[in-house]
Amino acid sequence: MRKIAIAAATLAALFAAPAFAQSSGASGEGRVEVRGGIAWAGGAEEAFAGAAAGYDFDLGDTTFVGIEAAADKVLVDGSEIFFTGAIRAGAKTGANGKVYVLGGYGFTDGAGDGAFAGLGYQHKFGSNFYGKVEYRRTLVSGTDINFAGVGLGVSF
Questions:
Q1: Model pTM?
Q2: CATH number, domain containing residue 14
């Protein structure tokens, strides 16, 4: 039940964020992306792939804060999809870059749940297309799992 409540709260916040930003006069942008990379833990390495959606709120000319919901899957038979909800905050670097830290909570249907933290860099190419690199360290059921990946997305 706790997993369903976490997922519902994350999705509600994700869909309410653009409406809140418009009604409050705050500026920001939504984003959707696909991503992939390498996950490793306990001497084993496997590829992963996933997708995410989020919304970043501008906190002035140099900083931002955002929310994100994502689903990632390690590409090996028997692995489950890892659903996450995150908050990220960072600094704008130049006209097109964002460096950030993030943290949140994730869960699978059966393998466990736990907190994670990470950092990343996102760079806009043109007006709506972006690429990013990101690292996350996740503690799920006592096992540290590392994710290092790249993503491609569209902002709106």
A1: 0.83
A2: 2.40.160.20
